[in-house]
Amino acid sequence: MSENSTLRVLVVDDNQASADTLHWTVELFGDTVKSCHDGRTALKLAADFRPDVILLDIGMPGMDGLQVCEALRAMPDLKHVKIIAQTGWGDEQMRRKTATAGFDLHLVKPVDPHVLEDMLWLLRSGRKAA
Q1: Could you tell me which residue ranges the Response regulatory domain spans (predicted)?
Q2: pTM metric for this prediction
């Protein structure tokens, strides 16, 4: 993927304001974005939209982000997707849980737009985000 290409980004957060803010921010970076507010819808939308990146909240009612990530990792067509936790929980125990569930990165809310922009730029240009 060249650094000028756009990413397909799925934002999943049960908090509408948080999802909208991330959605608009990623749109400003020039990427294609879809968003939803629960785990089951996220699985359906991911299968149809085929995102390059998923920004996934952890603390959601019903199916939480850890369960959603595990389900996404079990879908053969979505093995390539970079799944990024975006959560209010930044402690080491939660970071281990997100890594075990299959997340590629862990961002703590509120997500700094500059960090997000840099991370997406790295993904666009084919580099691994740290």
Answers
A1: 8-124
A2: 0.92
Domains annotated on the chain, with CATH? 8-124 (3.40.50.2300)
What are the pLDDT digits (tens) for 41-91? 999 999 999 999 999 999 999 999 999 999 999 999 998 999 999 998 888
Residue 51 tokens, joined: 């995102």
- Looking only at Cα atoms, what is the longest distance across the chain? 38
**Number of Cα atoms under 13 Å in the Cβ half of residue 9:** 28
